[in-house]
Amino acid sequence: MPFSHMEILKALQPLPGGVVAGQCQTRRDGQLIVTAELLGSARARQDEWEGVLVRVINPTVGELDVNAFLFSDYGTLPRGLGARVYASTTPGILQGKDLAAAIEEYVALFR
Hints:
There is one protein chain. By secondary structure, the chain is an alpha+beta fold. Helices cover 18% and strands 34% of the residues. The longest helix is centred in the last third of the chain and has 12 residues, at 97-108.
């Protein structure tokens, strides 16, 4: 059974404390709004993702920055399973702790 964007994002929790709705997780961080969505690639199928795309937005000024965090850089998948998450990947095996820590460090640059 394929898993949705929502189920994968809920398992990863790239923005701890954020709300997952549809294909995006959103969190308010002081005056900033931070969003995270699964990142596909031009050569990937629609049901596979290689990372998370994070946007930092200031409601007054607009989008401040966008950055991609690749699963392969943060040990998101157990060894031997490659660097991409597929719709068939069981969310329970995903390890998002290091990914979330890197994203948190990135967002801190804009506070």
